[in-house]
């Protein structure tokens, strides 16, 4: 009878513990029932490496939660994300772009309302203005990781070599081009950056935003004409290189005296020049007279939770770790931009992990936050950007005039916005 009781006791004990053989030792470990959640993100190998390390740390701290990872480079990520959103096979926690809230959750119902998880996620680390970027119809669809705005990074060394101050206004930019005489461009930019820059220039002249928050075009056909003429004029007068000719290597070599790029991309664009002995600095946002309007800010990237998640509490614990924990802050640093989370930022400040040109750009953006316009989530429509520069090239190569091109462009833009 005693033997039977002993066997019963050992059987019950085996449910609670498992024995693991390690050489000559028997290590008894508790068996914990795990909740599995999935997490998807995009990025380069550096991002993948530190994110996987951070997840291992999270799982050590939370042995009851297992995180299944889906990650890749940016190329193809949005296409796969679209398929998964339509087929309801998306990850439980997702890195998303700001524009995807309006694209995939136009009524605010296709992502989980994170407001319902306030007991698990410390939202007090974010200002209400920060959280507003993720709000849709009163529901918190996503939380921004960092904020972004287009920023002018100037090669102070090159400007001094030409005897110039770094330009603050559009007119000073043109004067710099006159002095440089085609030997160097005062500023350079990719296609998307040029799209922002031209819209800001025309918006400052007209006092109108390009579109409203719902994606409806506010610019007129005449404003489109001014956009086309402004870009072509900048190219013809050597203020900027044509966007098709933009080459990042020319920043490092000093052939470009500046570059317009996101805050989060500062080091990617500037480090080569710094390594070659140039002094790169954060310049003023370009304006007509110092008045900052039609210069736009947006979240760099965001985190969202799928709407029909089975384990929202586990997902919330993980999301709080991603946004607010010292551990994640230490792994991520400012690779995704200077974090908006006050606790993550404090950890970086206390451990001397904030600095460099990206942080300077972040501080400039923070100081100008009240003046910056909130970008429409429809602003970065690739089709709009492509047809705009197609129209510009028609004029640059003398195939049409700006008035005819502007009427056609306006019609196409409004069709895309419908």
Name of the CATH class of the largest domain: Alpha Beta
For this structure, what is the CATH homologous superfamily of the largest domain? Periplasmic binding protein-like II
Oligomer: single chain
Number of domains: 2
Number of helices: 17
Report the radius of gyration as a whole number of Å. Answer: 26 Å
Task: Summarize this structure as a short list of keywords or feature phrases.
single chain; 418 residues; alpha/beta; D-Maltodextrin-Binding Protein, domain 2; 2 domains; six-stranded mixed β-sheet; five-stranded mixed β-sheet; 16% strand
Molecular structure report:
- The chain is an alpha/beta fold.
- It has two domains: 35-146 and 300-324, D-Maltodextrin-Binding Protein, domain 2; 148-297 and 373-417, Periplasmic binding protein-like II (D-Maltodextrin-Binding Protein, domain 2), CATH 3.40.190.10.
- 45% of the residues lie in helices and 16% in strands.
- The chain has 17 helices and 15 strands.
- Strands 9, 10, 11, 12, 13 and 15 form a six-stranded mixed beta sheet that branches. The chain has a five-stranded mixed beta sheet with strand order 4-3-5-14-8. Strands 1-2 form a two-stranded antiparallel sheet.
- α9 (221-236) crosses α16 (382-396) and α16 (382-396) runs antiparallel to α17 (402-417).
């Amino acid at each position: 009878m005693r033997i039977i009781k002993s066997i019963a006791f050992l059987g019950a004990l085996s449910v609670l513990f498992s024995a693991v053989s390690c050489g000559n030792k028997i290590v008894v470990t508790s068996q914990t029932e795990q909740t599995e959640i999935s997490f998807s993100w995009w990025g380069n190998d550096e991002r993948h490496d530190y994110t996987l390390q951070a997840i291992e740390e999270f799982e050590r701290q939370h042995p009851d939660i297992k995180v299944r990872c889906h990650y890749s480079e940016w190329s193809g990520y949005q296409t796969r994300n679209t398929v998964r959103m339509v087929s309801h096979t998306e990850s439980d926690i997702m890195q998303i772009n700001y524009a995807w809230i309006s694209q995939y959750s136009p009524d605010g119902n296709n992502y989980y309302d994170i407001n319902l998880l306030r007991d698990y996620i410390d939202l007090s680390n974010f200002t209400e203005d920060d959280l507003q970027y993720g709000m849709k119809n009163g529901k918190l669809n996503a939380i921004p990781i960092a904020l972004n705005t287009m920023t002018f990074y100037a090669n102070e060394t090159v400007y001094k070599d030409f005897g110039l101050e770094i330009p603050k206004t559009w007119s000073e930019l043109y004067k710099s081009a006159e002095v440089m005489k085609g030997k160097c461009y005062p500023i350079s930019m990719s296609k998307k950056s040029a799209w922002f820059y031209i819209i800001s220039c025309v918006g400052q002249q007209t006092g109108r935003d390009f579109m409203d928050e719902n994606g409806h075009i506010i610019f007129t056909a005449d404003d489109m004409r001014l956009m086309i003429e402004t870009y072509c004029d900048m190219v013809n007068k050597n203020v900027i290189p044509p966007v098709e000719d933009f080459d990042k290597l020319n920043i490092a070599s000093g052939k470009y005296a500046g570059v317009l790029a996101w805050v989060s991309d500062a080091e990617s664009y500037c480090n080569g020049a710094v390594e070659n002995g140039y002094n790169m600095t954060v310049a003023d946002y370009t304006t007509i007279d110092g008045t900052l309007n039609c210069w736009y800010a947006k979240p760099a990237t965001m985190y969202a939770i799928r709407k029909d998640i089975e384990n929202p509490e586990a997902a919330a614990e993980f999301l709080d770790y991603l946004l607010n924990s010292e551990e994640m802050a230490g792994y991520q640093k400012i690779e995704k931009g200077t974090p908006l989370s006050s606790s993550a930022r404090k950890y970086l400040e206390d451990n001397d992990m904030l600095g460099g040109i990206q942080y300077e750009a972040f501080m400039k953006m923070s100081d100008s936050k009240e003046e910056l316009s909130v970008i429409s989530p429809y602003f970065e429509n690739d089709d709009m950007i492509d047809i705009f520069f197609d129209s510009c090239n028609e004029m640059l190569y003398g195939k049409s005039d700006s008035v005819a091109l502007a009427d056609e462009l306006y019609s196409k833009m409004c069709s895309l916005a419908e």
